[in-house]
Every structure is written in structure tokens, then in C-alpha cells.
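Ticket #4471: structure export looks truncated?
Reporter: QA, pipeline team
Priority: medium

Steps to reproduce: submit the single chain below to the structure queue and open the exported record.
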Amino acid sequence: MERKAPEVQDSDALLAVAAPERSAAGLHSIAETVHRAAGEMGVGRAWKALRAVNQKDGYDCMGCAWPDPAHRKAAEFCENGAKAVGWEAGMLTVPTAFWALNDVGSLASRTEYWLGQQGRLTEPVYKPEGSDHYRPVTWDEAFRIIARELNGLDYPNEAAFYTSGRTSNEAAFVYQLFARSFGTNNLPDCSNMCHESSGLAMTETIGVGKSAVSYTDFAKSELIIVMGQNPGTCHPRMLTALEEAKQAGAAIVAVNPLPEAGLINFRNPQTVRGLVGRGTDLADQFLQIRLAGDMALLQALSKKVFDAEKAAPGTVLDHDFIGKHCQGLDAFRAHLDNLDEREVLAATGLNPAEIDELAQRYLNARRVIVTWAMGLTQHRKAVATIKEIINLLLLRGNIGKAGAGPSPIRGHSNVQGDRTMGIWEKMPPWFLDALQREFAFEPPRTDGVDAVDSIRGMRDGGIKVLIALGGNLVHAISDTESAEAAVRRTRLTVQISTKLNRSHAVTGAQALILPTLGRTEIDRQASGAQFVTVEDTVCAVHRSEGNLEPVPANARSEVAIVCGLARAVLGSKVPVDWEGLTANYDRIRDHISHVVPGFENFNARTRAQDGFVLPHGPRDSRTFPTASGKAMFTVNELETIHLPAGRLLLQTVRSHDQFNTTTYSMNDRYRGVKKGRLVLFVHPQDLADLGLADGGYVDVHSEAADGVDRVLRQLRLIAYPSARGCATAYYPEANVLVPLDSTAEGSNTPASKSVIIRLEPAAAPAVPEQERAGTAGPA
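Actual output as written to the record:
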């Protein structure tokens, strides 16, 4: 029986606000998990899907990159992971008639939530030039169109090959091989928009741009500092590791502009205490820091370490570690001698006692982990801020020992693995040399473009074809109007996707959508069912094999699509057996083992139940593959954002019912928001100072150096316990306020967490007739 898409709320006119919650998970989380999974997939399919998530013989959850413990629970997933599985593995499909009934213009007028609710994509569709409708085409016809456009370009660099972090190692490897065989390093990816700042800062200071801790280090740590991060929504399984650390005696400090439920109290749904008890209070200290103030706080902490060493020479700094493994201490110390405490307090919004308390915690702890996410990486000074984390950790030898180290937490399940496989516009010469030896062709040597520069290239006419392996680039990138205008200037856009998103409605002159299998589904090729591999946030590599029958019969795996494209576009240009790689993914892994260090004997090692962990010099042996061979203390100039009168500093965040740009519902349970997303969280006193009221509506204007008036209209004001002078809105809706040229120094990551805004009163939105009549569907 055909299943129809539900009537869904497509505006914010029914928005309701309640008090924010002060505890995460618990019985409510279980109820939500069961409701969503059974509703999307049916009881039988949901049971089969969820019992395989993150299990050694199952598939890796696409919802985050949090590592798996050695001993798995029967339910080794979180509420948001179950939502991700249900969203992908639901039985609803987009019917062929949909494309005739919905033109591209009407799709562009829909919300991201509505688009995702239409179901799984089942067939390749093509929008010809001059038409406003997609129409079904065969796979061969789709490949011919792409080959015609790519081979008709004047230069290979007129194409860009974007990648989402959910792509497997095998698909990522063949994708970069295809792009480089075509002749370009234009391989932008989602990492450009999230942890690029982390990778650059860590590579320059310790030589490796990945987490220097393991899963077990959290339970061995004495102090865990969680900065710019909301694990309760973005990687909820981390809460279990934090609870285990707390029970083992660790102190936890949260540094964030917003109080987040998951760091206040965790009601672990797999324990009696979590279900019927009071749960576990996690954060021992909460520093409600002003946006962009983290760098000043870190410098202040390091200065206090130097002060303590001066008061008790030889007892505070780890002189043995620093002498053997570090460089640049004297310059760093001299720089902090001039740190202005008044500037620190102005930048952070904290009081001296709060900073002193955290400094004392750091001095008392022998093993310290600092963990962070995009609250740190998406500022102009993001790279410098993360270098200050490294400075602080180096002072007391908190790298390369159990229970200590820097730990950036990745969001996508394989965004780290994609980079390891070569998805980067700036892969080093040794990687390109290895490709040349393995495949007997000369890869391009000129750096390609990242995500921001790819949009600039489309805007300026230099990039004419965009191929996207997953993701939703046009809605994920900053400066929405500019990005959409840029994409519409291309000759062809190709989206390889499981479900509809906004990037399917913002197209080039021609557009293709190619349906792909999901992570949950059985991938059958000529040699039988295949598995793939992923790398998690702590460098562990393990297999992932779907166990569900595919929903769309005509969808193909990402590997099959990429290799099919390569055959159609390249012909015999490079001596690669694309058909053989599709038939048996072991052949891809054999090639990887010859090209990528750490993957030797890949096929045998990935068949071990626990997989394997990639080598990491700083973590494993305190060896630092920097230019000097030592870990580097760095000198970074502090820069404070001074707000003009009547202005606020804006950050963008996810809601709880969201994964990146994917919206599971219009609710944000932990922050008390229901049936809407166009909201602005502001401290009550800031609202009073601006002459505005809780529940009122405003147009939000960003004020950038380029003078362009970017505006997001009719946001509902919510009086919220935010840091003073700061405001918060949801991503991706608020991306329209972030200038394309406002990026982090060095990493070019959009500075979405520090946007100067002004607020203008606005009228409340009208209630559409169908929603007033009560047909908006369930909340």
C-alpha cells in the first residue's frame, strides 16, 4: 500500500515556548525514541534496525562520531541516533508523480523540515536547462549528462566535488580518486565548515590534527573541561562517558554561553538511577562565557599557571616534558606577562573568582582533558583559540599520558575518516605521490578550493559544475542568499542523496538528483553483500554493515554511483578498474592499504571485531611530527570584539530535534521551544535594555564590514539565561546573517558564532489557513 507524506507544519505561526529543561535523557528520551522509530519504520523494522546500531556486527550510527566502548550495551544508541536511523530507514518514498506536481520554485519555498518529510528518493531525476521540473531518467542517461558537462569544461578546476562526512572510507577514497583522475583537487567538504580550525591549529602545534585521547581516557581523567559544546544534543552518548568519569572521581567544567541541559544533569536511560532516580549532576562548575571570549580565558589560565610556578619554582610546570618535547616556552611566557586582566574580564564576561576557581582546578589535576566543538571553531580567532588549548595542556604535560589531552569532538560519523582518505583540497605531496605509484597517473598538484572558496568560485563564474556526495551545501554554508545566487550560476548541479533537502531546490541551469542507499541498508554487489568502514573521533576504524532491505529498489550505493560516474566520465583515461572496485569493496581497501599510512593489512584488520586504532604520535609516544619535531608553544594576539551600543553578538546552534541541516521536528525540547524555529534567545536584561519584550517579534540585521544589510525577519524573542550581550538563533536559518567573507583566520571556516546584530521590532507572522484549521500534523 502506498504511504503518503504526512501533512506537516511549514511555518512558525503555531510556535509555543515553555521553560527550558535542566536534565537530559531519562524516560522522556525513551518515549521519544520508541515513538519516532516505530512511527517512521514500523515496529519490526525499527527493532531490527536499532538492535544493530553501533554493534560490532552491525552498522555505525550516522548521527555522530562518538567512539564505541569496548563492551557494548544491548541499546548502544541515543535518542538522536534513533531519530537519525528512523529518518533514513523510514518506509515512505517520494512517488514519481511528485516531480510533475512540484516544480523547483515551489520546493524552494518549503522548509527544510517539509522537504525531509517527503520520504526516500527512489529514482534518478533530471532538471533540463529551461525547465522548472525534474523528470525521471535512467542511471545511464544521468551518467551521460554528467560526462557531457564535465568533459565539456575548459579546465578540470571548473568542477568542484563536495562531500558530506557521513560518506564511508571506501566511498570517500574512490571519490577523491575520481576527482583527481579528472584533474582537480577541488574537494570541499563539511569539515571546512566545522573542525577545520581544530585540524589546522593542532597540526601546527602537535603535528596531528586529530583527538589525542581514547574513549577510556575520559574515565581516567581528573578534570574534563568541556568548551563550546552541547553533547546532550550533538553527541548524546558522550554523556555516558562523562557520567563514568564523574563516578570515577573526575571534575567536569562547562564553558559555554548557554546552560545546556545535558551538562547540568544526565538521567541515563540505561540505569535505574537515570530512570527513577535523580540522575547524575555533571558540571561541577559552569562558566557562562561571552561569545568569542574563550581565547582570553585560556590565556588567563595559562598565566595563572606561570604565576603558580613563579611562586613555587620547579613544582608546577612539567619541566621534564617541556624540556624533552616542547619548543617556544619563553616567548609564550613573555607574551602572557603583558596580559591585561581588564581585557580578559571584558572579553569573557566572567568575574575573577570564576577564573581563579577553574585555574585552581587545573593546577590540582594531574590528568586533564579539554574537549570542544563548534562553539570554538567558528570564530575569526578560532585557530588561535585552539592553539591556546594546546599551550595550556603542554604546560603541565597533559598530552601523551592516560586521562589527558586535547579532544575535538566531530559531528558527522566519518568526517574524520573522509579527510584521512584524501577528501581535502590541500592533501600533502606524500599522499599524491602514493596515489601516483598505486594508480599510474599524475594527480594534480595545485591546491583546490574549500567550501567557502567553492561558493566564491561559483559566484565568480570559475566553477561551472558542482557534484555533491551527500550533504546540503547550499543550506549548510554561510551567507545563504549569496550562496544560492552562486549555485544558480552553474551549468550543472548533481546531488547524491537519500532524501530531499534545500540543495535540490537551488540548482544550476541543469540539475540531477541521484538516489543512494543509506547506512542502514544491505549493499549487494556482484561479489555479494558488502561492508564499509568508518573512523570515529578518537581515530578508531571499524566496519559498518547495514542489515535492512533497501527501501528504494533503484537506489545505488555511494561506491557504485561514484565508480559509475568515473567510468562514464573518464573512460580509459586512467588505469583504474572501476567496475572491479564496485563489485568487491575489498579491492578498494587493498588500494587504501597501499596509499594511506596506518591502514596496512586493512582487510584483515577491519574484520577483527573491534577494528583497529590508527597511530597517533603525540598520544602514543609523545612524538610530535611538526617541522621542529617538537610540540610548539605559540604566541597569539588576543582580540576582543567590542560591541557598539544597542548591538548583540549572535551565535547559531542546532535544536535538539536536528542533525546538521536535517530537521526531525519543529521542536527543541531541552530549550522549551515547540512548533517553531524562528526564535532568538536573549538575556532578559538585554531585552529590557533594548526596550524589547519577551514574546515580541524582531527583524534581525547583521552588521558586517562590507556594509551589506543581511536580515532574518520575524523572529520570536525568548527571554533566556544566555550570557549577557549575546544572542542565539537556529542554524541553518540564521546562516543568512553570516557574511561569506567572515571566516576564521587560517582555516577559512565560517565565523557563525560571532556575528554583530541589531534588532528592529516586527509584526507577528500570520497563521496560514491550513495550520489555523488544525491540519499541521502532530508536534
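Status: closed, not a bug. The export was complete when the record was re-opened. Leaving a note from the reviewer for reference: The chain has four domains: 25-89, 121-187+447-610, 196-408, 648-772.
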